[in-house]
Amino acid sequence: DGVIGDLHVTAYHSNSVFKFNGTTGEYITSYGKGSLRGPVGIACGPDDGDLYVSSYKTNQVLRFTSEGRLIGVAAGTNLLEQNGPQASSRRRNPINSPSGLAFDPHDGTMYVLSYVVGTLARFNNSALPVATHWRVTQ
């Protein structure tokens, strides 16, 4: 946690992220239940302190505040698109079963590893006014 040094740990089978005090190790809270399906990777945004969590089973990266409030989909297919009339958009999704996340501290580029298919997608939000939706740059 960029502000107070808390530790956030993904729990795949619980579909949650657990937050612990970074000094004492005391459990604080959990978040993401109902939004995440198979969280694996987690990274702290270099500029905003928000947490980005890969949702393995929904092919998404979700963005949360350091307090655990969902901000939105940072990368991947929108949940509504997966089940609605635009379901074919899943084929164009640049991430598939995201498992790892990392940020370039110099320019804020987010890298998403899709272990199952062996790809690394690069996302950069510099062309958009709101950083909750990203575009593939390579």
Q: What's the layout of helices and strands?
A:
Elements: E1 7-11, E2 16-20, E3 27-31, E4 39-44, E5 51-55, E6 60-64, E7 70-76, H1 79-83, E8 98-103, E9 110-114, E10 119-124, E11 135-136
Antiparallel strand pairs: 1-2, 2-3, 4-5, 5-6, 6-7, 8-9, 9-10, 10-11
Can you walk me through this structure?
By secondary structure, the chain is mainly β. It starts with 6 loop residues before the first strand and ends with a strand. Helices cover 4% and strands 41% of the residues. It is built from 1 helix and 11 strands. Strand 6 and strand 7 (70-76) form a beta hairpin.
Main attributes of the structure:
138 residues; mainly beta; 4-stranded antiparallel beta sheet; 11 strands; globular
Rough outline: globular
Low-confidence stretches: 79-91, 128-134
H-E order: EEEEEEEHEEEE
What is the overall number of helices? 1
How many beta-strand runs? 11
The assigned structural class equals mainly beta
**Cα separation of the termini:** 29 Å
Estimated helix fraction = under 10%
Round the mean pLDDT to the nearest integer and report it: 81
Rg over CA atoms: 14 Å
Q: Strand portion, in percent?
A: 35-45%
Order of strands, main sheet, comes to 4-5-6-7
Main β sheet profile: 4 strands, antiparallel
Short summary of the structure?
This protein has one helix spanning 79-83; strands at residues 7-11, 16-20, 27-31, 39-44, 51-55, 60-64, 70-76, 98-103, 110-114, 119-124, 135-136.
